[in-house]
Amino acid sequence: MTRYELRPPTRHVGQYMESGDWRGYWQTAISHASEGRILVRGYPIEEIVERLTATEAHWLLLKGELPTRREAEVFDACLRCGMDQQFISSAASATRFAASASRSPVNAVAAGMLATGVVTGSPRPTMEMLYGTAEDAAARGLSADAAAAELVTQFRERREPIPGFGHPTHRGGVEPRAEALRRVVRAKGGWREHGRLLEAVHASLQESLQRTITINLAGMLAAVYCDLDFDPLTAEGVSAVDYGWALIAHAVEEIRDGVPLRVIPDALGASYTGPAERHIPVDRR
Fold first, then answer.
1. What is the Cα–Cα distance from 72 to 55, expressed in whole angstroms?
2. Most CB contacts within 10 A, which of 100, 122, 180, 249?
3. Which of 282, 249, 210, 228 is closest to 108 using CA atoms?
């Protein structure tokens, strides 16, 4: 079990109801607010506003401590690379549909967020794979190459795709956002154990398939976030919020310049695959 693997909860509502003692039922280590005073992770909000960048403040909020300069620069690169890709993302399409009907960017972005998950580019599955593989390799004394080869064999035997690889558009081996992220992170000295493991898995996978395959942005982000020691749950949320900027742009464009109440006609690929016309028997009430 890796350090970030979900464990059974240690508290449950029944214990509070049974004892009648509700102390500790609502608690948080994130912030504290009282009249005229706000602390975030122990720091006065005034100091955060006056002295930190947005990237540094968000790191503090998520991880509880201030980042080093290198950590802040690498995290900032992660936040810059999740830009838009026209209508490839289902989240963008969901946002446009919702915006065309609701005419509200808030509702539209919320709809786009709900269409975001594992299939639409979350780094979480790849992070869980990298964390687990790295910890298992360390425990067994395996090299990154040996651990990667073993991992690829296991996935191929189960006929499962390995998360973090492949892209429907960027099929020639280069995903421009992912490669730019790797270059920046390397230059900042942030490409470390999990990044090297991702590259070993990539090499082993290509050798096994005997063809070129792309490391997608989710895979590259996963390696970087692992090397930054992020919780996979946190990274999944950050990635969704980061792409939310693009969803805002899509929502506003759709409301101002789009077509109210979008539909999918047959000419754009809609098709019916059910039974031919039929009728309810006349003797059926």
1. 7
2. 122
3. 249
pLDDT > 90: percent of the chain = 79
The single-letter code of the amino acid at 154 is Q
Residues 6 or more apart whose CB falls under 8 angstroms from that of 136 comprise 142, 147
SS3 sequence of 117-146: CCCCCCCHHHHHHHHHHHHHHHHHCCCHHH
Cα Rg of the chain, angstroms = 23
pLDDT of residue 119: 63
- Residue 155 CB coordination number (10 Å): 18
Q: Are 124 and 118 in contact (CB under 8 A)?
A: yes
Contact 133, 193 (CB under 8 A): no
- Alpha carbon distance 184, 182 (integer Å): 6
Amino acid identity, position 253: E
Burial 7-36 (b: 16+ CB within 10 A, else e): eeeeeeeeeeeeeeeeeeeeeeeeeeeeee
Compute, in degrees rounded to 10, the torsion defined by CA atoms 69, 71, 73, 74.
160
Strand partners, 215: 165
Q: Which domains does the chain have, with CATH numbers?
A: 84-262 (1.10.230.10)
Specify the pTM.
0.89
Confidence category of residue 199, pLDDT binned at 50, 70, 90: very high
pLDDT digits (tens, 9 = 90+) for 107-127: 999 999 988 876 667 899 999
Give the separation between CA 31 and CA 42, rounded to whole angstroms: 7
Tokens at residue 202, please? 């990539």
pLDDT in tens, 123-158: 999 999 999 999 999 999 999 999 999 999 999 999
